[in-house]
């Protein structure tokens, strides 16, 4: 079953970045409301200094998004259950703290270069979070590198600097490849869903040890990272935030498809469950037909 709370990963965040940059660049951040102070991880500078500043652009760092406002940065990470809800008719009414899923609301007014009577907002967005376990995070900083999660990121897998030589260095680890791909300090932006898809495309077991992979496996894996993520970003860019989750779901071949037929070999997609998550894989494509044992009951089968 597909989980609607699946964490936004690099392609969805890239889609959000492109959408917000096109909509907000040059507008003025007129009003900021933080309704859940647990999400605000910084105190200096205070978030009120963002008001009245022009949006110079929107950047992505791994799964983080960053609005550059005249040199002060509004950074957020949607975590597992967070999302961005965009509107071109934001309400001027103040939000009540703790009421509903909205953690923060930003409203934007006309560009400074355009005439405006100051009588309303052009557009805005809410940062929302479902469920009781809150991990959405907001930062207001002078430099994005002040955010520890950004400063510790590994290379972006779609950046020119992510070469095969760099990737070989990453694969020198004596660690299971699934966990390695998900480690943000090793590779930025890949999470549970796209690591499943990448490993399926590369025909590699999620529990293969990285440093033991042979040259052909490394070639397939490197190509799958670029191919899967590149196609997903191409699909995501140009879509509104409300369309991105459905777009992601329809492109998945194994992730969230437990019990369904693998579109490549016809085998049944299987699942391994953990305490708070699960992975999916195809035995026919990835493990020579072997079933990986559930970690909660027994050891992994290699």
Structure description:
The chain folds into two domains: 10-151, N-terminal domain of MutM-like DNA repair proteins (Alpha-Beta Barrel); 164-286, Helicase, Ruva Protein, domain 3, CATH 1.10.8.50. The chain is built from eight helices and ten strands. It has helices at residues 10-24, 148-151, 164-170, 177-182, 192-202, 215-236, 241-251, 283-286; strands at 28-34, 55-61, 64-69, 72-77, 82-87, 102-109, 123-129, 137-141, 270-273, 278-281. A hairpin with a 2-residue loop joins β2 (55-61) and β3 (64-69). α1 runs parallel beside α6 (215-236), α1 (10-24) packs antiparallel against α7 (241-251) and α5 (192-202) packs across α6 (215-236). The longest helix has 22 residues, at 215-236. The protein is elongated and about 60 Å long. The two termini are 25 Å apart.
CATH topology of the largest domain: N-terminal domain of MutM-like DNA repair proteins
Oligomeric state of the chains? single chain
Number of domains: 2
Query: SSE order, as H and E?
Result: HEEEEEEEEHHHHHHEEH
Topology:
Layout: H1 10-24, E1 28-34, E2 55-61, E3 64-69, E4 72-77, E5 82-87, E6 102-109, E7 123-129, E8 137-141, H2 148-151, H3 164-170, H4 177-182, H5 192-202, H6 215-236, H7 241-251, E9 270-273, E10 278-281, H8 283-286
Antiparallel strand pairs: 1-6, 2-3, 3-4, 4-8, 5-7, 6-7, 9-10
